[in-house]
Amino acid sequence: MNDFDSKLEEKILNFLKDEIGFENYGSALERGLDRIRPVFSDLLDNKMKIITVGGTNGKGEVSYNLGQKLLINKKKYGLWSSPHLLSIRERFILNGENISYEDLNRNIQECFEILNEKNDKLSFYEFLFYVFLYWIKGKNVEFLILEVGLGGRLDATNLLDADISAVVSISRDHQEFLGVSLKEILFEKLGITRKNQLLIHGVKQKYLRNLIKKYCIENQVYEIGIFDQLLVGEGDNFHDYNLKIANLIGIELGLKRGNLGINRPILRNWHFSFEESELYLSGSHNVEGIRQLGKDICKKELKPELIVYSSSRRNKVDISNILRSLLAYSNNNCKILVTSFDHIKSIDLETLKGIARSINSDRIGVIETWEDAFRYSRNKNKKRVLFTGSYYFISNILHDIQITKNIFSGEFKIKNF
Question: What is the spatial distance between Cα 198 and Cα 253, in angstroms, rounded to a whole number?
């Protein structure tokens, strides 16, 4: 965050918005990969080892953990990650470092000119992935880690053939694109596998694991499941599962078992300490993600005194279940505030008010902005505040903190939690 430049960030994002448009997974998925395969053809011929990481929750965590293991073992790697939280540069990682603003802007301009000359049209996500492959092609990396954006079968990352694929977990999310049942969602995720290559997975549900075995036999895919192989212990949590998946991938890539590097998971969480306040930010965008977060909160005994939740547009029943889970996992004296945020994908405040009223709990309230929620915490002397929900919501807060800084006093000490 120290090198975040709001002016350069805004310049790049404004160019993308004006020339490419907003991210629209739905229309991109409907059009499929055959449409864009010729556009990417010059970028798909490579000798890098490809690791494609999909799943509902935890794929970013696995990708980051694996990247750190490769770095510690002095292996050159590139990492494509999505979405970004604070800076768009987070999507473009080389050997543990984000791309510079100068390199990103230059590569975006060059790719835009190349595609414009050919009259090739890509979505926001597809264009950025094209830029990533264009940028990484000349970097002489040995390994390429690709975090799937949505689903798997029709995601742009699936243009490349994975030497190792990972499906981290399966739960309900993005049902409008991936299907309503867990079985439908699973088969969208399994689309990233390849014949005679390895699948490593952390799918917990036994009936889904049986479906994976059948799929892998029929499609000649080798598979290792951390639950099937009894590689998880009773004391392990969701983050431990993700670390073990990253460890397994590292072993399959030839990293020595005793030299995998890290033994504690790297999380994409934020912890701000200043004055007497503790702010925790953790993206958890679906019911299962919230449940895992709730278990983690209980285990670490964070005991938030206020939880602030916001969502992108999604099923009302899902949001209701998420709020009920937050009620169940938090203390009785913990207030839960739902809010909206400034983003094209944010759910509207009136819808949230209706969902909150339907739960009929005096612990749930509605507030207009996250800044208002923070001021509420100060007025009510609630010193431990957890912000959670959509990654776009977390991104919005991080962005506001960096740019405005006007509602805070003192210096931030930032650490993971």
Answer: 11
